[in-house]
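Write out the 3D structure for:
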Amino acid sequence: MPTASKLVAAILLAALGYLAADRVALHLPPETPPGLIRQITAVFGLWVGWKFLGPRVGGGMSSAVGLGLSAMVAMFIVAMGYFAGYEMIKRSLRKSYDDPFEALQSMVEIAINNTKHVAYADVILVLVVGGMLIGLVVEATSRRWS
């Protein structure tokens, strides 16, 4: 059932995903085009906000900060898994793997390798502060319109 807290959580996490991916795109190697990284991450933020954060608020402001951070981590993990899976599929179509387990192992290695583009202070600051603020705003929304 749609609620104001779900809507606000989805919109704000989508914006956070877009902003964080925009910061990550600045740290990509020059030969790597960012493509749709911003839009795809925003879609994952939208989904995590609607399904994960929006329904769980209502336990107070201290709980909201933790939920906001948890939602940010969930969005990060889903996005990293998607981008690693996408790269693994591209490599497997070029017949880079001998068996499926090698491809799955490579997917984990790709995800770990991709985290080096996120391990910058500006990206981490946007994610952590944004996650905490989003949790607080969604909690206030829940109190106001529920």
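The chain is about 80% helix and 0% strand.
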